[in-house]
Amino acid sequence: MRRLLASILILGASGAGWLGSAQAQQSCNAPAGTFDRVYCDAKLLIRADDELNVTYQKLLKRLTPQAQQTLRQTQRNWMKERDSTCVDVDPRWGSVVYSDCAARKTVDRLNFLNDRLRECLSTGCQPSKLR
């Protein structure tokens, strides 16, 4: 996944450089065009993926061994679903990642894991909600 994210960022960064330095530094709140959107989506995806990994590890440490297995399996299932939804393989072009889709799904999953972690910290872990 990390190599895939790096490829997206390189694509976005190269496009942003082509557009010129003033546009490349424009806020991601209002991207100027396709290359800016790809660059901004890649930045969001990498940041969200990093935060997701940290939150996942924190949550994992608070769970019982059985709940850890459940979380691991649901995480694998989520990754498969994300990839099947946000990645397309074309025999002519190879793999294409829809960065906006991947970023959106990663942020959604991060929010889900953060909710589970907050539950663990406040009222206790509820393994049934990991599914």
UniProtKB/TrEMBL annotation:
Keywords: Signal. InterPro entries: LprI-like_N. Pfam families: LprI. Residues 1-24 form the signal peptide. Transmembrane segments: none annotated. Residues 32-113 form the Lysozyme inhibitor LprI-like N-terminal domain. This is Lysozyme inhibitor LprI-like N-terminal domain-containing protein. It comes from Deinococcus indicus.
